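In the design runs reported in the main text, the only information available to the sequence generator was the tokenized backbone. The following block is the verbatim input for one such run; it is reproduced so that readers can re-run the procedure and compare outputs position by position.
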């Protein structure tokens, strides 16, 4: 098997730097858009045979070193009783967002092995399809980011409702986040048991919090997820955006690898989290929209900052943007491999 990705997560030497891309399956691919003409996002997530096809779409045409389960962060909202819908060009929308402690108590806790059996079935089918070719990454959301979606109910830039809830309904906030932590711990362990070989926890919006708030309202809940995953022998990745101020705390949340976005140079981030962590990142996804000479020099800057150290997983600082030309994604993956391939000794 191509085990570069798993080796890098464990900070073992690799023959070339592993590459994968957040949102490597999605709208920038014509095959995905074609399938979306016939099925909604949630229909694809609900049907293992469709989710398998979409997961495999990028790995057949791009030189990536890992596959990521096709699903969505908000899929677990459905069995909880949160009515989520994906509105075209606007993102997720929740018809009955959480606004009170009563709403928190109304959430239906569920057994992931039953209510999300279709996701676990997708993982099982993928392991058969991948047949050892590439490792498979499973994923879920961190409590802060899940709670932010559940409370806002739609897009937000200030997270005003989320923070107001945190500050003024503090007990309900912690109850909500601890429910998400329990659920995610269970769900992610179930993903590993079904065959996921690494787990990434997305706390996409944690960068909206100041350091003291991150410590009080988010970190203790995320820690519980990684503590539960420690019972399974797979590498874990923590990912968030805009984390420069909270990186010292993220370093102790319990993951093996840490994803960083492009705002902070990779070597500086590594100095903060310490060499006992693998680092994933951190090219600006927008560089894929420009000419390839600039794309390659930006990628080289990331690689130079990683300095060939064991434990670098090349990725973007956030997901592939829908307007990205596929050729640029293909060229970037090839470039990273060519630049870092070590001669056989
Ligand atoms: O290839 C992969 O990375 C796996 C698939 C994946 C999706 N969502 C599919 C998807 C993953 C890992 C996610 C995680 C996810 N979902 C996150 C965390 C990652 C991040 O971006 O920070 C978040 C915040 C969500 C919630 C979500 N889902 C939003 C905000 C949106 C709308 C924004 C957008 O890009 O349209 C989605 C929709 C979504 N999830 C799409 C895909 C491929 C696009 C939907 C479509 O086909 O119309």
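Verbatim output:
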């Amino acid at each position: 098997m191509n085990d570069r990705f798993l080796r890098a997560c464990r900070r073992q030497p690799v023959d070339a730097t592993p590459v994968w891309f957040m949102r490597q399956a999605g709208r920038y691919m014509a095959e995905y858009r074609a399938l979306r003409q016939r099925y909604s996002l949630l229909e694809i997530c609900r049907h293992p045979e469709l989710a398998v096809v979409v997961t495999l779409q990028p790995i057949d045409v791009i030189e990536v070193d890992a596959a990521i389960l096709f699903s969505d962060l908000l899929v677990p909202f459905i069995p909880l009783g949160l009515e989520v819908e994906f509105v075209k060009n606007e993102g997720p929308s929740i018809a009955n967002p959480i606004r009170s402690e009563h709403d928190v108590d109304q959430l239906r806790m569920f057994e992931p092995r039953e209510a999300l059996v279709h996701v676990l079935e997708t993982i099982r089918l993928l392991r058969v399809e991948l047949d050892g070719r590439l490792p498979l990454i499973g994923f879920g959301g961190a409590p802060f980011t899940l709670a932010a979606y559940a409370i806002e109910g739609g897009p937000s830039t200030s997270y005003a409702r989320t923070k107001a809830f945190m500050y003024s309904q503090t007990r309900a906030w912690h109850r909500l986040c601890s429910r998400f932590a329990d659920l995610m711990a269970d769900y992610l362990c179930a993903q590993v048991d079904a065959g996921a070989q690494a787990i990434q926890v997305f706390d996409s919006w944690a960068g909206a919090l100041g350091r003291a708030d991150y410590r009080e309202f988010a970190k203790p809940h995320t820690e519980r997820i990684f503590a539960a995953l420690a019972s399974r022998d797979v590498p874990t990745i923590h990912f968030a955006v805009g984390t420069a101020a909270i990186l010292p705390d993220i370093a102790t949340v319990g993951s093996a690898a840490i994803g960083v976005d492009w705002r902070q140079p990779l070597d500086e981030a590594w100095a903060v989290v310490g060499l006992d962590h693998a680092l994933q990142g951190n090219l600006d996804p927008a560089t894929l929209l420009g000419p390839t000479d600039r794309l390659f020099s930006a990628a080289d800057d990331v690689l130079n900052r990683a300095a060939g150290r064991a434990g670098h997983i090349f990725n973007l600082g956030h997901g592939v943007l829908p307007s990205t030309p596929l050729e640029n994604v293909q060229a970037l993956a090839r470039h990273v491999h060519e630049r870092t391939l070590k001669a056989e000794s």
